[in-house]
Amino acid sequence: MTIYSLYIFDRHCECVYYQDWHRTRPARSPPSTTFKPGVHRLPPPQSNTTNDGTQQRESIFANPNPNTSVNGGDHNNRNSLVSTNNGRSGEKGGGGVGGGGANKGLPFDEEAKLVYGVILSLRNMVKKLSGREEAFTSYSTGTYKLHLFETLTNYKFVLLSDPSSDSLRFVLRQLYVGPFLEYVVRNPLVDVDSRDRGVDNDLVSCVAE
Amino acid sequence: MTVHAVWVISKAGGLVFSRSYSDVLPPQPVNTILTLAGILHGIHAITARLTPSPIPGVPVTGLEAFEAEGWGGKVFLTPTGTKFVVLHSLPHPGLDELVRSIYEIYSDAVMKNPFHTPEMPINSSLFESRLQTLMAGVNGPQ
């Protein structure tokens, strides 16, 4: 079972959290005008045009002190970074072989909007067709499957996995009940209606299972 | 498995056929179904765009199935761009074969009809009656 990415949307239709794991076509970082801190760990928009080594990428990160892997949080941070970088190099290789333009991912903010739009329209469609409050749970294509878990407070947890997996709503529910409530809702330092977030280590470990 | 409804969507996204076969889902006015079919057509295109890890050389495909809590939908795209949408109840053994036989009936009763204009609404009593027999066979034992 492969899990590609996780999105969390708040009730203002904004993506408040994003992480990816095994994408060969990673999301590109959004342009600096729409860049928001604390949502994802994609490298920020490249203002400098150097051929950046990994050290430089790490130093751009939102984490102020990324090179010290003293505690678990930083360690996971580095892990997610490494996977992102691997994806990047894979993308470059693929682009060289078969027409780079088609293989380029969307900018992150555009992609988040598309995901939100799709789940919103499918949800409304399901509601209309069934004539009552019925939750839309998942859809699948030939290459991936999307799972949706919606909380009463209109947070939407979206998970992309490979198409053969079973329903993963319980994972999303666990994610909500466990790390999300514990580290976001009950965290006085997180402004719930804005976007800054910081619970990554627990999310990563949850996916490891 | 119970089949709730069958839609046929032309390659331009217009609804050319829709029929309901059970009363689990409430009946919808044709205009609503027309709108929903158009939305589904758009969603199909977007979902293909969202593919997280495409395999080089393999064409990306769009939406194939979606699920709600008590029922689901299956979208079958033919090589010519026509989409068949089947709304069904949830454990769905034999759904793929069912969709294929709907496609077969469509090819026989609609595409081989010299009086049928492509991309236009299907007005074929043969198509309807053969679908009806097929659905009676599927829904009957429930």
TrEMBL record, chain A:
<dbReference type="Pfam" id="PF04099">
    <property type="entry name" value="Sybindin"/>
</dbReference>
<feature type="compositionally biased region" description="Polar residues">
    <location>
        <begin position="47"/>
        <end position="71"/>
    </location>
</feature>
<keyword id="KW-0813">Transport</keyword>
<keyword id="KW-0333">Golgi apparatus</keyword>
<comment type="subunit">
    <text>Part of the multisubunit transport protein particle (TRAPP) complex.</text>
</comment>
<dbReference type="InterPro" id="IPR011012">
    <property type="entry name" value="Longin-like_dom_sf"/>
</dbReference>
<dbReference type="GO" id="GO:0006888">
    <property type="term" value="P:endoplasmic reticulum to Golgi vesicle-mediated transport"/>
</dbReference>
<dbReference type="GO" id="GO:0005783">
    <property type="term" value="C:endoplasmic reticulum"/>
</dbReference>
<dbReference type="GO" id="GO:0030008">
    <property type="term" value="C:TRAPP complex"/>
</dbReference>
<protein>
    <recommendedName>
        <fullName>Trafficking protein particle complex subunit</fullName>
    </recommendedName>
</protein>
<dbReference type="GO" id="GO:0005794">
    <property type="term" value="C:Golgi apparatus"/>
</dbReference>
<feature type="region of interest" description="Disordered">
    <location>
        <begin position="24"/>
        <end position="98"/>
    </location>
</feature>
<keyword id="KW-0256">Endoplasmic reticulum</keyword>
<keyword id="KW-0931">ER-Golgi transport</keyword>
<dbReference type="InterPro" id="IPR007233">
    <property type="entry name" value="TRAPPC"/>
</dbReference>
<comment type="similarity">
    <text>Belongs to the TRAPP small subunits family. BET5 subfamily.</text>
</comment>
Automatic annotation (TrEMBL), chain B:
<dbReference type="GO" id="GO:0030008">
    <property type="term" value="C:TRAPP complex"/>
</dbReference>
<dbReference type="GO" id="GO:0006888">
    <property type="term" value="P:endoplasmic reticulum to Golgi vesicle-mediated transport"/>
</dbReference>
<keyword id="KW-0931">ER-Golgi transport</keyword>
<dbReference type="GO" id="GO:0005794">
    <property type="term" value="C:Golgi apparatus"/>
</dbReference>
<keyword id="KW-0813">Transport</keyword>
<dbReference type="GO" id="GO:0005783">
    <property type="term" value="C:endoplasmic reticulum"/>
</dbReference>
<comment type="subunit">
    <text>Part of the multisubunit transport protein particle (TRAPP) complex.</text>
</comment>
<dbReference type="InterPro" id="IPR011012">
    <property type="entry name" value="Longin-like_dom_sf"/>
</dbReference>
<comment type="similarity">
    <text>Belongs to the TRAPP small subunits family. TRAPPC4 subfamily.</text>
</comment>
<keyword id="KW-0333">Golgi apparatus</keyword>
<dbReference type="InterPro" id="IPR007233">
    <property type="entry name" value="TRAPPC"/>
</dbReference>
<keyword id="KW-0256">Endoplasmic reticulum</keyword>
<dbReference type="Pfam" id="PF04099">
    <property type="entry name" value="Sybindin"/>
</dbReference>
<protein>
    <recommendedName>
        <fullName>Trafficking protein particle complex subunit</fullName>
    </recommendedName>
</protein>
